Amino acid sequence: MFGPKAWIWATIVVPALAAKASLNLGNGFDLTVDKDSNHLSIARGNSSIWETVAGKPFLSASSGVDEVVGASGAFNITDVDNDKCTDQHIRRVTQSAWSGSVNDKAAIVEGTLSGCGDESVDFKFAVWVPAELSDRIAFHIDVKPGSSKDAATKLFLTYASSKSEDFYGLGGQGSFASMKNQSVPIFSREQGVGRGDQPTTDLENADSYFSGGDQFTTYSAVPQYISSLARVFHLAEESTAYTKFDFKDLKAVTVRYAARSVDGYIIQAENMLDGITKLTEYTGRMAELPRWVDTGAVLGIQGGQTKVNRIVDQGLKQDCPIAAVWLQDWSGTHSQSVSYMSLTVSRLWWNWESDEKLYPTWKKFVQELRDQHNVRTLSYINPFLANVSTKPDGYRRDLFLEASEKGYMIQNATTNDTSIVSSGPGIDAGIVDLTNPAARSWFRDVLIDQVFSANVSGYMCDFGEYTPVTKDTRFYNKSIDPMFYHNQYPRDWPKLHHSLTKSVSSFKESILFQRSSALGSQRYMNLYWAGDQNTNWGLNDGIKSSITVMGHMGLSGFAHGHVEIGGYTTTWLESGVVNRTAELLGRWGELSAVSSAVFRSHEGNVPQLNAQFYSNSTTYAYYAYNARMFRSLATYRRRILDTESKNLGWPLLRMPVIYHPNDVKAKSISYESFYLGADLYVAPVVDSGRTSVEVYLPGKETFTHVWSGKKYEGGQTVRVAAPYGKPAVFVVGKPQHNDLKDFLEFARKENGTVIRV
């Protein structure tokens, strides 16, 4: 959007300024420089926007190459900082002509970095007010490598913070509320199984390298934050190298960037919601969700036409509003044996055509569901192409072979062949090379001819974070560095699907939901989901983490999110099996009803070990009840999505800190409670065996409990009953809109309903 290509050095330079000077950047912004103390500050009028830390270098550099180990998305990164240049000297400060700035000028701070051996390296730090977004500061940093064998390879930007400033966003962070005291890597990858929850994480890591992940592994790593002081910091879209945000110093922030040149933006917003608006003015905002998603559940089912028809019929008899079925196995499944109880699990064939065994009349079947029940169909896609030469029931097209012959997949220079990703025994696949225009065009045609031709209403756009980073990785665009492109692929992947807008007449009525994201991905998406959680109550990788992920994604500019009801990952380890109970499934359904833009379930990776919504009449009744609760909020949700999300970028689910940035308790809430829009406050049940919840009510508003009608004043912690089907939901104050009527009527009507598990 506004990248390094716009930065044009001019030949006209204002003479170097004195030791202490103030430079007008335009639109009320001023940069003050004290050369002797290496201190910079930016203000707008009497308000400080950004400043460096007295006594510390604001720029430093280091040598060394970071170590990235792992495969199949499970990347473990070790930072390598050898000689670190921490002695900074400002040589001169100038004001230069600068294309793209509001006053055609930029302030340029130049100097040297030393202390890393015999050699010093030069740096330039430019700041200006961009003409197209004139309410913020843009910056560009360039560090020269030097001529020694231990040349600088990365840079560090350090600036002031305060003890009271807390940090949110940074993509799909699932373990913490504020990121204060943490060091957060920005590198999209498999989030792992466990992410710190024990003993699962250690057992998974012992079984397969780093497959358990840690508290910072995430599918969606976004180089930005919004602080409790309404400060917004983000990199430019083109700055995609591995980055780390270090918030461990209580009075400073350090951004470590694994390259010598970086661009970014600094914003002082009026409040955190305004910060989201300003961020999304740069990144773009999510596209509109079709209205059919408001009408009921998206049933996640596998097993073929007969099973799907049976479950849909059963649901209609259970008074379950059904908007769609999501059939991820539409392309067929491959059986794999596991060690636990001689189980066989099914993995998908990544060859994007309907499977004639499971769905023998696929197009007709999709249309009949629509015609007979007004139930839409969603399918599944990812960027992999599987080698189907061993597929026992045959295939019509071999997409892996087609792409191999045309060079449409990412290559490995060592093998001089396709870079292979394994999905367990029997399935090897390549990744579509999105740097290749011909490959993009070919894959678009596959989606048009083999997916949308069946009149589906969208699909899961899975993965996007597996791009290899080894030195022998080769792309069609040979100038691309694998470590730089890795964080770009999660933006190119939804961009590919978004390019179908003009080719598919039903595209605007479709949902295409992603799990991996990058800065700017949202402009190509209309829905994300919080990723694959374990089928348990865990903090770092269970039901609790799905709420935390959605909270931070909202503060990263992603407005439309949803949880995957019931979780996905069932594990079988030495400590026993971790599978989904009926209670967990029901409580997760409650959470979805009062948190998400779409109500969608998943059978999980081992369906036969998990409670399913269709397991029996009791589980289906609970699911149907939750789907009706979701439907009752349709008018309220739609008003938020069509106004606040569309026009301002505001998320549906909002962390309490957004409205209470000075409240210490609110700042530390990650999963315990959240706002749905501005008028509802929710405290879901996320622990087994609980029939009540203790919830902190922030602020000074009156909170009215929807099930009992009891009113509570803000600023206190209360305990309310929360039996099955009755998550703690409060109306906040006196809403200005009359769009909670259906939900309140649902609460009145269903107040006496007894839900069982």
UniProtKB/TrEMBL annotation:
<feature type="domain" description="Glycoside hydrolase family 31 TIM barrel">
    <location>
        <begin position="304"/>
        <end position="618"/>
    </location>
</feature>
<dbReference type="InterPro" id="IPR044112">
    <property type="entry name" value="YihQ_TIM-like"/>
</dbReference>
<dbReference type="InterPro" id="IPR048395">
    <property type="entry name" value="Glyco_hydro_31_C"/>
</dbReference>
<dbReference type="InterPro" id="IPR052990">
    <property type="entry name" value="Sulfoquinovosidase_GH31"/>
</dbReference>
<dbReference type="InterPro" id="IPR000322">
    <property type="entry name" value="Glyco_hydro_31_TIM"/>
</dbReference>
<keyword id="KW-0732">Signal</keyword>
<dbReference type="GO" id="GO:0004553">
    <property type="term" value="F:hydrolase activity, hydrolyzing O-glycosyl compounds"/>
</dbReference>
<keyword id="KW-0378">Hydrolase</keyword>
<protein>
    <recommendedName>
        <fullName>Alpha-glucosidase</fullName>
    </recommendedName>
</protein>
<dbReference type="Pfam" id="PF01055">
    <property type="entry name" value="Glyco_hydro_31_2nd"/>
</dbReference>
<feature type="domain" description="Glycosyl hydrolase family 31 C-terminal">
    <location>
        <begin position="649"/>
        <end position="731"/>
    </location>
</feature>
<keyword id="KW-0326">Glycosidase</keyword>
<dbReference type="InterPro" id="IPR017853">
    <property type="entry name" value="GH"/>
</dbReference>
<dbReference type="Pfam" id="PF21365">
    <property type="entry name" value="Glyco_hydro_31_3rd"/>
</dbReference>
<dbReference type="InterPro" id="IPR013780">
    <property type="entry name" value="Glyco_hydro_b"/>
</dbReference>
<comment type="similarity">
    <text>Belongs to the glycosyl hydrolase 31 family.</text>
</comment>
<feature type="signal peptide">
    <location>
        <begin position="1"/>
        <end position="18"/>
    </location>
</feature>
<dbReference type="GO" id="GO:0005975">
    <property type="term" value="P:carbohydrate metabolic process"/>
</dbReference>
